[in-house]
Write a structure and sequence with these properties.
The complex is a heterodimer of chains A (96) and B (133). With 96 residues, chain A is an all-alpha fold. Chain A is built from four helices and no strands. Chain A has one domain. Helix content of chain A is 88%, strand content 0%. Helices cover 82% and strands 0% of the residues of chain B. The chains are: A mainly alpha (96), B mainly alpha (133). At the A-B interface, α2, α3 and α4 of A face α1, α2 and α3 of B.
Chain lengths: 96, 133
């Protein structure tokens, strides 16, 4: 266990986890601040991509390859959400 | 050797994600932020997933990781384009230092050529602008 967690890949994965955590915090500030709804959609989309990256880094850090499947699903759902938000915004602009 | 390369990929990917998030927080208007979010973060996720594919040395895992990378590289531009279009239609303000807005000029030229193609409120607005001028 100890020799596995000392390998360069595991150290790098843990470092990557910290960095992506910081990135998540920064994009969360943008999500709260806005100021417009499209800004929040961009921040939410970014948080989805970062979650996939975080799962990938965690899969390497814990040596669990199964974690890649949730990452796939999260990527799909994130794209759907972005498209739905964009459609909704555009329709709302047209109706006004 | 492969282990070192893998570690570098993971750190570089995380670095790109951090830069993308920093851009989304700090850049002045929505369209610039979209640029940081789409390009930097997609490249970061691609690097991280490539790192996963190399780390496990397993054909099934590598295939799935490459599939996710391909999916991201296909959908990120589409999603960004849709958000940008919707944001422009909603009327999100551009940065005050912006010097060129080709879409607006193009729309104006198109309506002058054929005013009937516009939605009613827009042609009303333009007619009023002409009367005032």
């Amino acid at each position: 266990m100890s020799h596995a967690s000392d390998s360069p890949a595991h150290v790098a994965a843990n470092l990557a986890l910290v960095m992506i955590g910081l990135a998540l915090f920064l994009s969360f500030i943008r999500l709260v601040r806005g100021p417009s709804l499209p800004d929040r959609v961009v921040a939410l989309d970014l948080i989805g991509v970062q979650a996939v990256g975080m799962i990938a880094a965690y899969a390497v850090a814990t040596d669990q390859a199964v974690l890649l499947d949730p990452a796939t699903v999260l990527g799909l759902v994130g794209f759907m959400g972005t498209v739905a938000f964009a459609k909704y915004l555009e329709r709302r602009a047209r109706d006004e | 050797m492969s282990e070192r390369f893998n570690a570098v990929l993971l750190v570089v990917g995380a670095l790109f994600m951090l830069l993308g998030a920093l851009g989304v927080l700090r850049l002045p208007d929505l369209f610039m932020r979209l640029q940081a979010s789409t390009k930097a973060s997609t490249l970061g996720a691609g690097c991280l997933l490539l790192g996963v594919a190399i780390h496990f040395q397993d054909l099934g895992v590598a295939t799935r990781a490459l599939l996710v990378i391909a999916f991201f590289f296909l959908t990120a531009p589409v999603g960004a384009h849709m958000i940008a279009r919707a944001a422009y239609a909603v009327g999100v303000p551009l940065w005050e230092g912006t010097i060129i807005d080709e879409l607006r000029e193009q729309k104006r030229a198109a309506t002058e050529a054929a005013p009937g193609n516009l939605p009613q409120w827009q042609s009303e607005q333009q007619r009023q602008e002409r009367e005032n001028a």
